[in-house]
Structure formats: structure tokens, C-alpha cells
Design brief:
Pfam family, one: DUF2158
Distance between the termini: 67 Å
Strand content: 35-45%
Strand order of the largest sheet: 4-3-2-1-5
Organism: Paraburkholderia domus
Protein name: DUF2158 domain-containing protein
Radius of gyration: 17 Å
CATH topology of the domain at 12-72: SH3 type barrels
CATH architecture of the domain at 12-72: Roll
Number of helices: 1
Order of helices and strands: HEEEEE
Length: about 90
């Protein structure tokens, strides 16, 4: 009989995140969207390229190691929106 055990902790880092996933740095920070997961020229291993908007509304892009980020839910609960930083439509 052929049996197999799949251990989620033994999956490769590249399989953990895909383009479109939402992540944050483990140290905290903005929610970012993964735009690429895989090898990057002149850098050994697999990396994540993420994009996000900074506090000034500027689009930012940076490369991160898989181990430095954690997954976040794709949607944001309505109660977590800060109205003080956003303008209200009349």
C-alpha cells in the first residue's frame, strides 16, 4: 500500500506565497501585495517582490525574504478603517 504524509511545514518557501497574496513584515508595517515569488537575478534563493502604498500615497516596491513576512487576510474589516486619515465623500 502506498501512503504519503503532507507536512505543511516542509513545503518550499516558493510554495508558501504567490502573486496576489497579501502580507506584512513580521516586524510590522503596511499591508503589501506580492507581485512576484521566485528567484531574482544575482540573489541566491527565492524572494518576494511586494508593492504597497506608503503613508503619502506613493506606490512602493521592495524585495523581501519569505521568512521576513507573514500572510494577512485579503480583505480588511470595515471597523479597521481609520477615517481620520481618509476624506469622506459628500
Amino acid at each position: 500500500m502506498l501512503t504519503a504524509i503532507i507536512d505543511a511545514f516542509e513545503t518550499s518557501p516558493a510554495a508558501r506565497f504567490n502573486a496576489g497574496d497579501v502580507v506584512t513584515l513580521k516586524e510590522g508595517g503596511a499591508r503589501m501585495t506580492v507581485t512576484y515569488a521566485g528567484p531574482v537575478a544575482l540573489n541566491p534563493g527565492d524572494w518576494l517582490i511586494c508593492e504597497w502604498f506608503d503613508e503619502h500615497g506613493e506606490l512602493r516596491r521592495e524585495m523581501f525574504a519569505h521568512e521576513s513576512v507573514r500572510a494577512e487576510p485579503r480583505s480588511i474589516p470595515a471597523g479597521s478603517v481609520l477615517w481620520g486619515r481618509m476624506g469622506r465623500a459628500a
